[in-house]
Write a structure and sequence with these properties.
single chain
Length: about 140
């Protein structure tokens, strides 16, 4: 016996957009402290009433599972052919302590954030993707 039920239409609402954006912001430092992953930026952008401003800031991913924080570093910018490596935070902190990660695209969904952009070392960019899994909130700490 097959029972047919009418069509169900469901709309996923993403809520209001944050007034803060990480696009074009550069990560100066990444730390892991008390189960929180902390990104320190030279500045981030805010947009309110049509006005763009910059702010010195940190972004904290609360209750982050550091075992699932992966950083993909490629050998160049992704165009046609590329290779890369998957590293964890301690290796990133050691190998790229003098580099800056410039966020180009930021994507968020249900305890998962993906930051994609350029990892700048001595003026040369390579593509980089950071996958972050967290159980708490994403908190902007803005000066």
């Amino acid at each position: 016996m097959i029972i047919r039920i009418g069509l169900i239409k469901m709309t996923k609402s993403f809520g209001s957009h944050s007034k803060y954006s990480l696009h074009d912001a550069r990560v100066q430092k990444i730390e892991y402290e008390d189960d929180n992953l902390i990104f320190t930026f030279d500045y981030i952008f805010s947009y309110e009433n049509g006005i763009e401003q910059t702010h010195k800031a940190q972004v904290v991913f609360e209750t982050c599972d550091i075992d699932f924080f992966e950083i993909l570093v490629f050998n160049n910018t992704i165009l046609d052919t590329f290779t890369g490596i998957r590293i964890e935070l301690p290796q990133y902190q050691q190998d790229y302590s003098e580099s800056e990660f410039e966020v180009i695209t930021e994507t968020y969904n249900w305890g998962h954030a993906v930051l994609q952009g350029w990892l700048w070392t001595e003026g040369n960019p390579v593509h980089c993707i950071m996958n972050i899994y967290f159980k708490g909130d994403m908190v902007y700490v803005v000066e």
